[in-house]
Design a protein that fits this description.
One of its GO terms (molecular function) is identical protein binding. With 218 residues, this protein is mainly alpha-helical. The protein has helices at 19-33, 38-51, 76-86, 94-103, 108-116, 126-136, 141-152, 165-177, 184-199, 208-213; strands spanning 91-93, 123-125, 163-164, 205-206. The chain has a domain at 66-213. The longest helix has 16 residues, at 184-199.
């Protein structure tokens, strides 16, 4: 069927005044995030935008993660995006989390592999999934905790990456409990040393320099 022979002039076409800024912010977000599948990511972006949810956007462009044995696409920056989207709830529905995962163009196989480390049914504590995600990036337990601190800290990028000791202890104990080579006594001794450091300060925080300077597990 031929298109109607209708002429439009500039006065007949209405452009919403907010559209240019929306497209500008979208373009900047795409450049920072560098999605593998632009269409998949865009669907998640505009869906989140329409609901007023945190957007699937990285804070900055990332360099490849050298510690990964294979390129799974998962990075600290993408885990940080997921944290912004999921941390408002203690537990996250796995179906919802998988959808957010796909919107970041990450392979479903990697998502399922992470869940197999600590199997659950329909939901999971977000902080545990974050810990498993940091661990799956590769390296030692300390490397995983470095990622945790850099994701959770309120310090500016490149700073000491401090987080509350209780948060650090909770995540460290959880990841250590999944490693058969780390005994409970080792974990307790290590965390006791870090607790002394945190209690010597008024803020009770632990930073990267604290757990890299002493004898550490992993």
């Amino acid at each position: 069927m031929p298109l109607p022979d209708t002429m439009f002039c500039a006065q007949q076409i209405h452009i919403p005044p907010e559209l240019p800024d929306i497209l500008k912010q979208f373009t900047k977000a795409a450049i920072r995030t560098q999605p593998v599948d632009v269409l998949q990511w865009s669907a998640g972006y505009f869906s989140a935008l329409s609901r007023g949810d945190p957007l699937p956007v990285k804070d900055r462009i990332e360099m490849p993660v050298a510690t990964q044995k294979t390129d799974t696409g998962l990075t600290q920056g993408l885990l940080k995006v997921l944290h912004k989207q999921c941390s408002h709830k203690q537990f996250v529905e796995l179906k919802d989390l998988e959808k957010k995962w796909k919107n970041l163009c990450l392979p479903v196989e990697k998502f399922r592999a992470i869940l197999e480390l600590d199997p659950c049914d329909d939901k999971m504590e977000w902080i545990k999934f974050l810990a498993l995600g940091c661990s799956s990036l590769g390296g030692t337990l300390n490397t995983a905790m470095k990622n945790v601190c850099e994701i959770l800290t309120a310090d500016p990028e490149g700073g000491p990456a401090r987080i509350p000791f209780d948060t650090f202890s909770l995540i460290y104990q959880y990841l250590a409990s999944l490693d058969p080579e780390i005994s409970a006594s080792e974990t307790e001794t290590y965390l006791a040393t870090l607790r002394e450091k945190s209690e010597s300060r008024k803020n009770g925080m632990i930073g990267l320099s604290d757990f890299y300077t002493g004898k550490t597990s992993g």
